[in-house]
Amino acid sequence: MRRLVLATRNKGKVTELKELLADLAFEIVDLSYYSDLPEIIEDGGTFVDNAIIKAKAVAEYTGELSLADDSGLEVDLLNGEPGVYSARYGNPEWNDRERYQYLLKKLADYKDTRKTARFRCVMALYEPQSKQVEIAEGAVEGEIVEPRGNHGFGYDPVFYIPELGKTMAELSEEEKNRISHRSRAIANLKPKLAKV
Fold this sequence. Notes:
Layout: E1 2-6, H1 11-20, E2 26-30, H2 47-62, E3 65-75, E4 81-82, H3 96-106, E5 116-127, E6 132-144, E7 159-161, E8 166-167, H4 173-179, H5 181-195
Parallel strand pairs: 1-2, 1-3
Antiparallel strand pairs: 3-4, 3-5, 5-6, 6-7, 7-8
Helix pairs in contact: 4-5
C-alpha cells in the first residue's frame, strides 16, 4: 500500500483529513511520524504558494507522496484578513480563542454590518519522483458572529453558515466533513489522488 504523508502536525486537521481520505487505498501518516523533519518556513504570499512549499518540502524529505493544505479565513470587511496569516494572526504565541477574540475586536466598529467571510482551502499533492504537483481548492461562505459551539478548532466558533443556521463549531464532525472548505478541496482532489 502506498504511503501518503499529510504535511501537518495539527491534530484537528489530521483527524479531519484521515476521515475525508478513508475510502482511498493509502497508508496515511502525518508529520508526527517524522519527528526529525526540519521546520518548514511558509513564506508564500498566497494559500497556493504555501501549500506547494509544504507539500514539496515534505515529499522531498520523506521520498513519499505528500499532501499539504494551506487554509484560512478571509473577512471581507478586513480586506481578506487574516488570510494566509490565519494560524498566526495577531501573535504567533496565541491560542485559537485569543486569535478569534482579536478578530472580533477588529470588527467591533461594524456593529450593524454583515461580516461576510469565507473559509478557503488549497490542497497541494506533490509526487517526489515526477516532481509533479496537483492543486485543488474549496471554500465555504459565511459570516463572523459572536462565538457559539464547542466542536472543531481555529475560527470555527465565530464562523456562521446562514443556510445551516449554525456556526462551524456547532456542527457534528460528520456535518462539518460534508460541507467544510477542506472537504470541498479534497473532493476536487480525489480524482487526481485516485489516479496515483
